[in-house]
Amino acid sequence: MTAKRRGRWWMLGVVILLAGGVVALVLTNGKKPVRVQIVRAQYGRVEEIVTANSVGTVEAQMTATVSAEISGKVVKIAVRPGTAEGSRATTDAPVICIDPEDILAEERVTLSDIATQELRSKQAELRREKLQQEYERLSRTDEAQQKLDQLKKEIEIARTDEQIAVSSIRTLQAQLEVIKRKKTKTHVPAPFKGIVSKLHVELGELVTPGKPLFTVLSDGSLLVRAPLDEVDKARVTRDKRGRVTFDGYKQRFEGSIREIQDTASTDQKNNRTIDIKILLDSMPETICTGMSAHVEIVVASKDRGLFLPTHLVHEERGGGARFVLVAQDGRARKRPVKTGLSNWETTEILDGITENDAVVNPLRLEEDRTIEDGTALEVVP
User: Fold this and answer.
1) Is residue 96 part of a domain?
2) Packing angle between helix 101-138 and helix 145-184, nearest 10 degrees?
3) Residue 171 and residue 309 share a domain
4) Same domain as 275, residue 147
5) What's the predicted TM-score (pTM) here?
6) What is the pLDDT of residues 331-380, one digit of tens each?
7) Beta bridge partners of 67
8) Is 123 strand, coil or helix?
9) SS3 of 69, please?
10) Which of 102, 195, 248, 265 ranks highest by number of CB atoms within 10 Å?
11) Which has the closest alpha carbon to 60: 288, 238, 249?
12) Residue 82 and residue 204 in one domain
C-alpha cells in the first residue's frame, strides 16, 4: 500500500472517531454520564408509620406534688433527690416533718378544757341530784308550795348547767380529733411508692396549707409521651404498636399505646397536636424520667411486600403520580409505579416494576446532578 493510500485511510479513521464523538456528545447533551448504582426491589415486611410531631418525653405513670396541710416550720427532710442515701419514698415513712410543737400545745390546752368541763358536769350533776332529793323530801311534808317551786327552778338550772358542760365536752372532743388529725399531718409521706424528684422547701422554712413540699414519681414502668399531628389521630388507635428509640441507645423498643388524649394542644407555631402515651414492653434501667425519646407508630403492616428505599420513589410535579427511574440501555427511563404502605425508609411497590428491574440509585457525590428520563448513566458497583 502506497503512502498516499495509507494517509487516506488514516484520515478516514479520524473522521469516524470525530463523528462518533459528536454523536455521543449530542446524545449526552454535552454532559458526562451520571455515575449511579443499581438497586433492585425486594420482598419483605413493609409498614405504614406515623412519626411524632416532635421529640417525646419519658414520664412516670403517676406524678404527684405533695403540699402542706398545716402551718409550721420544716424540721426534717428525710429523703433528698439524688443523694447517696437514696431518693426513694414510701407510704409509711415521712419525707418531710413539720414542727408539731404548736399542735401539741393546742392538744394540751384542749385536754385541760375537757377535764374542766367534766368537773363542771359532775358538779352540776351532783347539785341536781341533791336538789332533787330535797324536793322529794319536802314534797312529802306540809312545806309551802313557794319553797317547792324554788327547788324546781334550781333543779332545772342544775340540769341546764350539766347539759351545757356535756355539750362543751363533746365540742372539745371534736376539736381534739381535729388536733389529732393535724398532728398526723406533721409527718408527710409520699402518696405512693416512688422516687422524690424535687424538693420545694428547705429546713427551717415556714410553710402554710397549700404550700408544695415535694414531687414524687411512681415506681414501675415508665411511659413515653409524644405529640402527634392532628391529621394522624384517626389512624392511631389503642390497638396499634409503637416504637421508641433513645439517644445513646442503638436498640429500638416496642410498646403498646396506653393513652390517647381526647383534646388537641397548640404549640408556639399554632400547630395542633394530640398527645399519646406508650408503655414499653421493656426499657433499660438507665432510662429515667425527663429523657427525650423518638416515637413512631405502626398504623399498618404487611409481612411480605415488594418494596424500595423511599428516596428512590419520586413524585410528579404537582403531586399525585409516582415513578421510579430504571437503568435501561445505558440511560435512565421513567417508570410509573403504584405505591402502597410507606414510611421514611421503605415504600411498597404494588405495580410498575418487578424485583428484576434495575432501579437507579444516584451516588452521594453525584446527587447534585439531575437525573431525568433519558439521562446517560454510568453504572458502578
Assistant:
1) no
2) 160
3) no
4) no
5) 0.65
6) 999 999 999 999 889 999 999 999 999 999 987 655 556 888 888 988 88
7) 212
8) helix
9) coil
10) 195
11) 288
12) yes
